[in-house]
Amino acid sequence: MDDNRSIAFQGMRGAYSEQACREKMPDYRVYPCKTFEDVFSAVEEGLCRYGMLPVENSMAGVVSDSYDLLAVHRLSVVGEYFLHVRHCLLANPAATLPQITTVFSHPQALAQCRSFIRRFGWNHLSVYDTAGSAAELAQRAIPQEAAIASELCASLYGLTVLQRDIQDSRMNTTRFLVIGREPCSPDPSEPCKTSVLFTVRDIPAALYKCLGGFATNGINLTRLESRPVPGKQWTYNFYLDFQGHPEEERCRLALEELRFFTTSCKVLGCYPEGTKPQWDETP
Question: Is 176 a catalytic residue?
Answer without folding.
Answer: yes
